[in-house]
Design brief:
The protein is of the alpha+beta class. 49% of the residues lie in helices and 8% in strands. It has six helices and four strands; from the N terminus they run ααββββαααα. It has helices at 2-17, 26-47, 137-146, 160-168, 170-185, 187-224; strands at 53-56, 65-70, 82-87, 98-99. A hairpin with an 8-residue loop joins strand 1 and strand 2. Helix 1 (2-17) runs antiparallel to helix 2 (26-47), helix 2 (26-47) packs across helix 3 and helix 4 (160-168) crosses helix 5. It holds the Pfam family UQ_con. It catalyses: [E1 NEDD8-activating enzyme]-S-[NEDD8 protein]-yl-L-cysteine + [E2 NEDD8-conjugating enzyme]-L-cysteine = [E1 NEDD8-activating enzyme]-L-cysteine + [E2 NEDD8-conjugating enzyme]-S-[NEDD8-protein]-yl-L-cysteine. Keywords: ATP-binding, Ligase, Membrane, Nucleotide-binding, Transferase, Transmembrane, Transmembrane helix, Ubl conjugation pathway.
Length: 225
């Protein structure tokens, strides 16, 4: 983050010292405005993350592309690990970020193709809660996180089949959610498998070591006798 901030400052200083006027293409100008906004907004977002969220930047100098990882601690999706790639377009903050859910799940407001139904992500929203230039990345993160708790909405679904499933049979819905979590998003399950594999190899290693020690001990006993 600091590196990009320094780059933007240096670029601004260079532009101010130029004697000849330069015509900056609209795309570059918009990206520059976006990147300046993101330096501040990313710092604010990271300082106010919910305890169930983490963010990952593949390149710390590229702030307009990152992953939000949500691991709910309660509710139907508890124990899962859900990845949301976030792309901030050049026209930000006049338009909202583009968000998809990379992890397959059974959810009334997130369909199996990864599309997300959240008012904050809508350019025009009839409920008055849509995107506005005053919105920030922090609000997007908290909104996405709340889709697993208090913003969960079965009455205005994106995935009608999931919502109807819940209305028809809540226990069956819960079972299918858990099945999807175990198949596609069960972080702790995979961690458990890794730990088991490590313990298995450690057991083999110590068994081989013990066998070799016994063999050597037996050999020396034979020599001494």
């Amino acid at each position: 983050m600091i590196t990009l901030s320094k780059k933007l400052k240096k670029s601004s200083e260079n532009n101010n010292t130029d004697t000849a006027p330069n015509v900056v293409p609209d795309g570059i100008r918009r990206a520059s405005v976006r990147d300046k906004l993101l330096v501040r907004e990313v710092q604010e977002m990271e300082a106010n993350l919910p305890c169930t969220c983490t963010v990952k930047f593949d390149d710390p100098d590229v702030l307009h592309r990152f992953e939000l990882i949500i691991m709910p601690e309660e509710g139907y999706w508890q124990g899962g690990r859900f990845v949301f790639p976030v792309e901030v377009p050049e026209d930000y903050n006049m338009v909202p970020p583009k968000v998809k859910c990379q992890t397959r799940l059974w959810h009334p407001n997130i369909n199996e193709e990864g599309n997300v139904c959240l008012s904050l992500l809508r350019q025009n929203s009839i409920d008055g809660m849509g995107w506005a230039p005053t919105r920030t990345l922090k609000e997007i993160v908290w909104g996405l996180n709340s889709l697993f708790t208090d913003l969960l909405n079965f009455d205005d679904p994106l995935d009608n089949e999931a919502a109807e499933h819940y209305q028809r049979d809540k226990e069956s819905f819960k079972a299918k959610v858990k099945d999807y979590v175990q198949k596609y998003a069960f972080f702790f399950f995979f961690l458990f498998l890794i730990v088991c594999r490590i313990l298995y190899f450690l057991t083999l290693f110590f068994a081989v070591c013990a066998f070799q020690i016994l063999s050597v001990s037996h050999y020396f006993c034979v020599l001494l006798n």
